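Hi C.,

You asked whether I'd gotten around to modeling the 115-residue construct. I have! Everything is below, sequence then structure, no commentary in between.
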Amino acid sequence: MFESPRACCVEGAVPMKSRQAKRLARSSLTLSLLVVIGAGFSTISSASDIDARSAKTGDSKYVQVVVTPGESLWSIAAMVADHSEIASVIADIVEVNQLASADVSAGDKILVPVS
């Protein structure tokens, strides 16, 4: 009359408990990955907040500038310096921002001296 529960299963199908275990493991892995990514973004955000606060506090002679497409250190320095002082302003920007070279990319945040 009644068939056993295994008789109704399709041949080769994974038992329900095994499927649940795999789903749980996949969910746990996904959740762990999301937590790690969230912690990374939080750390980056905190670090940028600290940098922004340190640039704004006290008698700072610098202002934070976001480099836009087409800008170079030369063009940025030319906005804040006299024509004869551009090279020294560039050297100051490279030193303060600990840049390896005078190359900057769009989106870079740099400290620029205020005249």
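If it helps when you're writing up: Strands lie at 62-66, 109-113.

Thanks,
B.
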